[in-house]
Design brief:
Blueprint: E1 2-5, H1 7-11, E2 19-22, H2 24-32, H3 37-46, E3 47-49, H4 54-67, H5 75-87, E4 90-92, H6 96-105, E5 109-110, H7 112-120, E6 123-127, E7 133-134, E8 148-152, H8 157-160
Parallel strand pairs: 1-2, 1-4, 2-3, 4-5
Antiparallel strand pairs: 6-7, 6-8
The chain binds zinc ion.
Length: about 180
Protein backbone atom coordinates (compact mmCIF):
# COMPACT_ATOMS: atom_id res chain seq x y z
CA UNK A 1 0.00 0.00 0.00
CA UNK A 2 1.21 3.48 -0.88
CA UNK A 3 0.87 6.31 1.56
CA UNK A 4 1.52 10.02 1.17
CA UNK A 5 2.53 11.71 4.42
CA UNK A 6 1.78 15.33 5.25
CA UNK A 7 3.97 17.39 7.59
CA UNK A 8 2.09 16.30 10.72
CA UNK A 9 2.49 12.66 9.72
CA UNK A 10 6.22 13.16 9.24
CA UNK A 11 6.47 14.92 12.58
CA UNK A 12 4.33 12.40 14.45
CA UNK A 13 7.23 10.01 14.92
CA UNK A 14 4.84 7.16 14.20
CA UNK A 15 5.94 4.46 11.83
CA UNK A 16 3.72 3.69 8.88
CA UNK A 17 3.54 0.60 6.75
CA UNK A 18 3.83 0.42 3.01
CA UNK A 19 5.57 2.53 0.41
CA UNK A 20 5.83 6.04 1.81
CA UNK A 21 5.96 9.29 -0.12
CA UNK A 22 5.85 12.99 0.50
CA UNK A 23 6.43 16.22 -1.41
CA UNK A 24 9.45 18.58 -1.35
CA UNK A 25 7.19 21.31 0.08
CA UNK A 26 6.08 19.10 2.99
CA UNK A 27 9.72 18.30 3.76
CA UNK A 28 10.54 22.03 3.73
CA UNK A 29 7.64 22.62 6.13
CA UNK A 30 8.91 19.93 8.48
CA UNK A 31 12.43 21.36 8.35
CA UNK A 32 11.11 24.63 9.70
CA UNK A 33 10.33 22.83 12.95
CA UNK A 34 13.91 21.67 13.12
CA UNK A 35 15.08 18.14 12.70
CA UNK A 36 15.77 15.14 14.84
CA UNK A 37 18.03 12.20 14.00
CA UNK A 38 14.88 10.06 13.86
CA UNK A 39 13.25 12.36 11.33
CA UNK A 40 16.40 12.53 9.22
CA UNK A 41 16.58 8.75 9.16
CA UNK A 42 12.93 8.49 8.17
CA UNK A 43 13.38 10.94 5.34
CA UNK A 44 16.61 9.34 4.18
CA UNK A 45 15.50 5.74 4.22
CA UNK A 46 11.75 5.29 4.40
CA UNK A 47 10.11 8.18 2.60
CA UNK A 48 10.51 9.01 -1.07
CA UNK A 49 10.20 12.68 -1.94
CA UNK A 50 8.36 13.29 -5.19
CA UNK A 51 6.89 16.40 -6.79
CA UNK A 52 3.38 16.03 -8.22
CA UNK A 53 2.63 16.86 -11.83
CA UNK A 54 1.10 20.23 -12.71
CA UNK A 55 -1.88 18.40 -14.26
CA UNK A 56 -2.61 16.66 -10.98
CA UNK A 57 -2.38 19.97 -9.13
CA UNK A 58 -4.79 21.46 -11.67
CA UNK A 59 -7.33 18.68 -11.00
CA UNK A 60 -7.05 19.26 -7.25
CA UNK A 61 -7.45 23.01 -7.69
CA UNK A 62 -10.61 22.76 -9.74
CA UNK A 63 -12.31 20.55 -7.13
CA UNK A 64 -11.07 22.71 -4.25
CA UNK A 65 -12.43 25.80 -6.00
CA UNK A 66 -15.86 24.17 -6.27
CA UNK A 67 -15.96 23.21 -2.61
CA UNK A 68 -14.54 26.51 -1.41
CA UNK A 69 -11.65 24.72 0.27
CA UNK A 70 -9.11 26.36 -2.02
CA UNK A 71 -8.68 29.33 0.35
CA UNK A 72 -7.86 26.99 3.22
CA UNK A 73 -5.43 24.84 1.28
CA UNK A 74 -1.79 25.85 1.17
CA UNK A 75 0.33 25.10 -1.89
CA UNK A 76 1.82 22.28 0.21
CA UNK A 77 -1.65 20.81 0.87
CA UNK A 78 -2.55 20.93 -2.82
CA UNK A 79 0.73 19.27 -3.72
CA UNK A 80 0.11 16.43 -1.26
CA UNK A 81 -3.38 15.85 -2.64
CA UNK A 82 -2.03 15.89 -6.18
CA UNK A 83 0.72 13.42 -5.33
CA UNK A 84 -1.70 11.05 -3.60
CA UNK A 85 -3.95 11.21 -6.66
CA UNK A 86 -1.04 10.57 -9.03
CA UNK A 87 0.28 7.62 -7.05
CA UNK A 88 -3.14 6.18 -6.19
CA UNK A 89 -2.04 6.44 -2.58
CA UNK A 90 -3.69 6.93 0.78
CA UNK A 91 -3.13 10.38 2.23
CA UNK A 92 -2.15 10.69 5.87
CA UNK A 93 -3.43 13.97 7.23
CA UNK A 94 -5.37 15.50 10.11
CA UNK A 95 -6.31 18.60 8.09
CA UNK A 96 -10.07 18.83 7.58
CA UNK A 97 -9.93 20.77 4.30
CA UNK A 98 -7.46 18.29 2.84
CA UNK A 99 -9.70 15.41 3.92
CA UNK A 100 -12.75 17.09 2.40
CA UNK A 101 -11.12 17.60 -0.98
CA UNK A 102 -9.55 14.14 -0.81
CA UNK A 103 -12.93 12.46 -0.39
CA UNK A 104 -14.35 14.39 -3.36
CA UNK A 105 -11.39 13.36 -5.49
CA UNK A 106 -11.76 9.75 -4.38
CA UNK A 107 -8.44 9.81 -2.57
CA UNK A 108 -8.51 7.59 0.52
CA UNK A 109 -7.16 9.22 3.65
CA UNK A 110 -6.28 8.27 7.20
CA UNK A 111 -5.97 10.48 10.22
CA UNK A 112 -2.43 10.66 11.55
CA UNK A 113 -3.36 10.51 15.22
CA UNK A 114 -5.58 7.46 14.85
CA UNK A 115 -3.07 5.83 12.62
CA UNK A 116 -0.28 6.58 15.07
CA UNK A 117 -2.20 5.06 17.95
CA UNK A 118 -3.00 1.99 15.92
CA UNK A 119 0.67 1.51 15.13
CA UNK A 120 1.62 1.58 18.79
CA UNK A 121 -0.77 -1.25 19.67
CA UNK A 122 0.94 -4.56 19.26
CA UNK A 123 -1.25 -7.17 17.73
CA UNK A 124 -0.33 -10.77 17.90
CA UNK A 125 -1.66 -13.64 15.92
CA UNK A 126 -2.07 -16.92 17.67
CA UNK A 127 -2.97 -20.29 16.28
CA UNK A 128 -6.06 -21.73 17.96
CA UNK A 129 -4.67 -25.23 17.40
CA UNK A 130 -0.99 -25.42 18.27
CA UNK A 131 -0.72 -22.06 20.03
CA UNK A 132 2.10 -20.66 17.93
CA UNK A 133 2.40 -16.87 17.69
CA UNK A 134 2.91 -15.06 14.39
CA UNK A 135 4.16 -11.56 13.76
CA UNK A 136 2.22 -11.21 10.53
CA UNK A 137 -1.52 -11.74 10.11
CA UNK A 138 -2.26 -15.15 8.63
CA UNK A 139 -5.64 -16.84 8.30
CA UNK A 140 -4.44 -20.36 8.67
CA UNK A 141 -1.58 -21.74 10.69
CA UNK A 142 1.16 -22.90 8.29
CA UNK A 143 2.19 -25.56 10.81
CA UNK A 144 -1.06 -27.28 11.80
CA UNK A 145 -3.68 -25.67 9.54
CA UNK A 146 -5.88 -24.37 12.37
CA UNK A 147 -7.52 -20.96 12.54
CA UNK A 148 -5.25 -18.09 13.58
CA UNK A 149 -6.81 -15.52 15.91
CA UNK A 150 -5.82 -11.93 16.51
CA UNK A 151 -4.98 -11.02 20.06
CA UNK A 152 -3.83 -7.81 21.59
CA UNK A 153 -0.45 -8.18 23.23
CA UNK A 154 -0.08 -6.78 26.72
CA UNK A 155 3.62 -5.97 27.02
CA UNK A 156 3.46 -5.17 30.74
CA UNK A 157 1.97 -8.49 31.66
CA UNK A 158 5.22 -10.35 31.06
CA UNK A 159 7.30 -8.29 33.49
CA UNK A 160 5.40 -9.31 36.63
CA UNK A 161 5.33 -13.04 36.17
CA UNK A 162 8.32 -14.80 34.76
CA UNK A 163 7.34 -17.80 32.77
CA UNK A 164 9.74 -20.54 31.84
CA UNK A 165 9.62 -21.67 28.26
CA UNK A 166 11.04 -24.76 26.75
CA UNK A 167 11.56 -26.60 30.03
CA UNK A 168 10.74 -29.88 28.31
CA UNK A 169 13.25 -29.39 25.51
CA UNK A 170 16.17 -30.63 27.58
CA UNK A 171 14.47 -33.79 28.63
CA UNK A 172 16.83 -36.70 28.87
CA UNK A 173 16.22 -40.28 28.08
CA UNK A 174 14.77 -42.19 25.18
CA UNK A 175 12.26 -40.65 22.82
ZN1 LIG B 1 -1.09 -24.23 14.52
Amino acid sequence: MRRVLDASALLSGASFDGELFTTPEAVAEVRRYGSTPQLDATLAVKVRVLAPSTEAIGAVDSIARETGDIARLSPTDRGLLALARTLDATLLTDDYSIQNVASLLGIPFERVLERGIREVVHWRYRCAGCGRFFEEPVRECPVCGSEVRTTRARPREASTSRSVHGDSSRRHGPR
